[in-house]
């Protein structure tokens, strides 16, 4: 089969090689999956660079998130059955930027029937992360104000939709007019182009000085420091990631005087340690997808040979929505 391989860490365009490799063999508890579509995520770029918290042995195939058809199973696996369409995480070092991949059988979830392969591939991580960030960590309430950074990106766009579904007023922060248009289409009540306006000033203005109850921040850097200037009393900042490349150093004195809370969110820990909650979230998210309330914001459709260039564009911050690879 064809698969992208990383032999030495580096930028995606330099580190990735498209090669012919043997099909992976599912061991006990694993399933072999024909890749129908694979989402392209920022952590895939970090994997290529050797900067992700998981460091699979070299060479490895990146591609964390997949929608696929079960075509084989290892010892002890009875579900999901061969022929089922599933979504979830690939089992590194056999990632999803390939024609076939492996998954842990007990982590594979039914693909939402309302979503085609492309949308289903982009559904799992972003919406699970949003659900846990907004509901489990921040306890977002109807009528509250939610400020979402990178609102036209993969993770941020899911948070905008989930915030609206929860009854919040959503402020979407984006970079550029094209992304501003996408955030409006997603349903953001107020959209701020950070290249033209100070988002903290806008948040204070539209809330009559009260500030944002919840901030969803997958960016870090100046996005975090600006958010600290516009927090409501007993507000919550959910730290989701550092796509800017800058890990902020919180001013704890400001947090104390502002009486707001800083919440870390590493969704992968829930996937490993709180399986019942992940299943519950998937049921609720699937119901929202069935009703058309949430739909992944899709960007580029990539063919397998295009993955390295597409992942590099995502790493460089020039993409909008979720890029998805279709291997055929």
Automatic annotation (TrEMBL):
CDD domains: QOR1. One of its GO terms (molecular function) is zinc ion binding. This is NADPH:quinone oxidoreductase family protein. It comes from the Bacteria. Pfam families: ADH_N, ADH_zinc_N. Residues 11-325 form the Enoyl reductase (ER) domain. InterPro entries: ADH-like_C, ADH-like_N, ER, GroES-like_sf, NAD(P)-bd_dom_sf, Quin_OxRdtase/zeta-crystal_CS, Zn-ADH-like_protein. PROSITE patterns: QOR_ZETA_CRYSTAL. SUPFAM superfamilies: GroES-like, NAD(P)-binding Rossmann-fold domains. It comes from Streptomyces xinghaiensis.
